[in-house]
Specification:
The chain has 779 residues and is mainly beta. Among the domains are: 78 residues, Immunoglobulin-like, CATH 2.60.40; 120 residues, Ferric Hydroxamate Uptake Protein, Chain A, domain 1. It is built from 9 helices and 48 strands. The strands form 13 sheets. It has a 5-stranded mixed sheet with strand order 2-9-8-5-6, with no helix packed on it. Strands 28, 29, 31, 32 and 43 form a 5-stranded antiparallel sheet that branches. A 5-stranded mixed sheet has the order 36-41-42-39-40, with no helix packed on it. Strand 47 and strand 48 form a beta hairpin. The longest helix is centred in the middle third of the chain and has 12 residues. 34% of the residues are buried.
Length: 779
Amino acid sequence: MTKKIKPAFKEYFGQPRVSIFLHTNKSAYVKGEHIWFKGYLYNRLKGIPLKEPVNLYVGIYDNNGDQLAKHLFICREGYAEGQIEIDSTFTHGQYYMKATTSWMRNFEEDDSFVQQFAVLGEEILSTKEIEQVGYDVQFFPEGGHWVSDVQGVLGIKALDENGKSVAGLQGIIRNQKGKEITSFRTNRFGLSKVTMIPSTGEKYSAFIDLKNGEIKKIPLPLADKLGLTLSLRSLKSGRVMILIGANAETKKQIGSKPYSVLIHRDGLLKSLNVVFEKEELYVSHILDKSEFHNGMNIVTLIDDQGEPIAERLHFNENGTNKAELTAFVEKEEKDSLVISISGFEKDKSSSISVSVLPKETKAYKQNANIQSSLLIKPYVRGFVENSRYYFDDAIKTRKADLDLLLLTQGWSKYSWENIFKKPPQKKYDFRTGVDLFGQINSNIPKNNDLLFYAGKNSDPTIIYLNEESTSFKLKNYLINKGEELKLTLLNKRGILSRPNLFIRVNTGETEDKVYNLEPFNIVGELADSGGVEANYLNDFVFPENIIKLDEVVVRDRVGGKKITSPFVLEEKLKTVTTETEGLYPRLLDLIRSNGYNIWEVPNAGYDRIRITTKRPLALSLTPPSPILYVDDVRYSDFNILIDFPTSRIERYYINRSGDGEAGGAGGVIRVYTRKEGDVGAARPKKDEKNSKFFTHIVKKGFTPKKQYYTPKYQSMMNDSFRHFGTIHWSSNLSINKNGVGKLKILDTGLKEISLFIEGMSENGNMYSIKKIIRVSIDQ
């Protein structure tokens, strides 16, 4: 180890590196649906969720990588939640979703998360073309060097003319005289390797057996006359051998110069000495798993001047979670199912997202999972096909295939020239919130200040002014798109007057592109997967302005808003006004004001909201709970009331006596929500000239988080729904101290469903698993 390495590493990796994974509910959508997602941000050095609050920018890009839109979400304690509507601006085709932070702009390496998704038109047509026979077969010496008279490994990668991997391609390597030296066959990702000792001056060629019977000859790279090889070999004992080889002439030139092997990642650094014994041409170090860093390791051979001469990636599975999750339908409740998922860490906080889709779904084609996104992607240069495969414990060859992938990836993403010469400059912070810039366009009366109301999530702020004030700046406000900002001048006597202002909101967004586009067309993959050509997706999802009638609730949008319910007389329903919203911002506040006890216990497991009357029954010491209906749908618990704003309600009915309903000793609560397009309570019209407030509607801000709802599909029993429909999405599964989560979903009538589970615990353990469960609890 030279004095050159340590200070360079310390400076280059001194700032924490963050990786992102977005778990989306699907990868193929139709108009009328939403992309529901959960964002996971990971501190790679500490191996835990990122603790700093930070803005998460999620962009949408077309098939060429050009930006179409960008959305802003807040990330807290390493997690973000949100949704993006598939509206009329989307046409049939392939898109990309990219997630990044302003902090990542400090570094040369792009650690943004990119994922492909599809928007489907009325009918999916096959895109199969005549099969091409043109192949690109590439050879990669392990560690970067292939040296004469030294045993070395050549990685092999086979791609077709479209950049897709070619599985099962066979080849023979021969010398100049045509003698067979070795042979190979590519795996499912078009990868293979051969081990051989190239002779000095010998020219080798690979003879590839094309599928049409033709044999293609491809020259291999010439072996170097001088140099060192770096190789890693997994041993049966579970240990790993690092092998450095040299030919006689190279060893003679090296002499006793101190060479080293570095084992490093994200600033973590270990070193081994490389000393050739007399008469030996190879140096080996056999290491236990515990001697490597957990996760990815970059193994670099360094010469006596501190210059890297060979490099190889190695993945150490130590520290990766091996938890087995079990899932089953615990009970059926009318039109709902309660699913129990167990196997999460006990007494540890975990954040888990779950997508529930039909068993036959073709709409979940995610290339990556949380483990491949956070543990592999940050270190490799190229695209990794189906990277989630390498963490599927059910596949016996996955470890060997991962090592083969890393062998053919070559050097890591980090440039040694940058490490030595271009350390990161901290130009961007962990930005949180948006900044407001105000321009004052009139003289400020003496002893006046501005009183500022920044939406519903912030308390009023006083902006102190003087007579010379012409502008002001407010930083780090959590303001949503569509919110109304209000400012008024306030004098010492408490008199308000309207200021003359101009407001600009800066979210920190920048327009960018997606580079290194994936060589796969997800739309074509769906069509060519078979059996979907007959799936017509026209009117697959009802437009939002269509109201579907059922036996219980009738909503009539003609001639104004009207709520009709067979359970409550019209005159007993109370209307939510602006005064109601101001006094009781949340529905829980409104319920509490009507004589109920409320406990909010966010980490209590399944029942995070508890509501009881203030007096127990005569024969019970426990006060009863009320019955809750939302739009005349009865709920078995009160979790729906978490973050339920009063502004969502049009009318409500609260009866503490139960109104004679069976089981209603704790009372009955019925709320009726506003329909799509209604925003807030009815407000009186106002004359802006006479108003004492300057108002500004925010066009750029955070995208408000919506509560998940299942789209209104025309049918849940046809092939279109079974292949492309959505059953449920949970961005934050509630898990109790015993490591058990409960999930309540709509019963669609399907016999089997798929759960796609991703998540991370507070100590960095990751979960990624697919579970297929039977719906009927009687079978």
